[in-house]
Amino acid sequence: MSKPHAIRTELDGLLDGLVEGDPFPPERELATRFGVARETVRQALHELLVEGRIERRGRGTVVSTPKLVQPLSLKSYTEGALRMGRKPGRLLVTWEDVAASADLAEALGIAEGDAAMHLERVLLADGQKIGLESTYLPVARFGGFRETFDPTTSLYAAVRATGVHFGSAVERIETVLAAPREAALLESTTAMPMLRLHRRSLDIEGGPIEVVRALYRGDRVAFEASLTDRD
């Protein structure tokens, strides 16, 4: 067994005996305990950080809160967080009307140059920053949100309250690195892998509702889907 693999196995064993919030031994102590170079330990600790099993708090390292698991479905982030017993929250970053580009206009079913509402928010779970969501909606359809919508609450609930029902969506997820602005908003680094989600949602009659680009911290969020064999 290689040294990096052996150290990782030892660290996994240590984690099995700890619970959320427990302090994790520092790099120097682990290197001495296992008789290996600090670089070997540093590599294993970085893997655990990326996987979201440990996290930095102040000058130390502790066992992380389990990842928030979001279902791949037409449910809001709020519903996914509540399902796991987590407290959802949002911080407003940007709320503005923009002239739709050709691609955005086609996706929203409006004319190029027409107004699209752009809503950018940081997503929270138990006060912890886990994602950055950028949503575009046609102003002609949802312009009333300026007077009625609280951006710290669920957008999907607000859409449904207007009598619009989500019918379908096309969603794509890929792994990326955050830009400096995105990393700063999520209190992360540009070296931390992120999950980028693209979604276009339609109502039950096939009319466009939204276009979403969301970035989730890979160490704090995972996605799951329920699959069936229809053959």
UniProtKB/TrEMBL annotation:
Q: Which InterPro entries match?
A: Bact_HTH_transcr_reg, Chorismate_lyase_/UTRA_dom_sf, Tscrpt_reg_HTH_GntR, UTRA, WH-like_DNA-bd_sf, WH_DNA-bd_sf
Q: Known Pfam families for this protein?
A: GntR, UTRA
Under the heading Gene3D superfamilies, the entry gives: Chorismate lyase-like (3.40.1410.10), Winged helix-like DNA-binding domain superfamily/Winged helix DNA-binding domain (1.10.10.10)
The keyword Transcription regulation appears for this protein: yes
CDD domains on file: WHTH_GntR
What is the official name of this protein in its record? GntR family transcriptional regulator
Organism, by scientific name, is Mycolicibacterium arenosum
Keyword annotations for this protein?
DNA-binding, Transcription, Transcription regulation
HTH gntR-type domain ranges (all copies)? 1-66
Which branch of life, at top level?
Bacteria
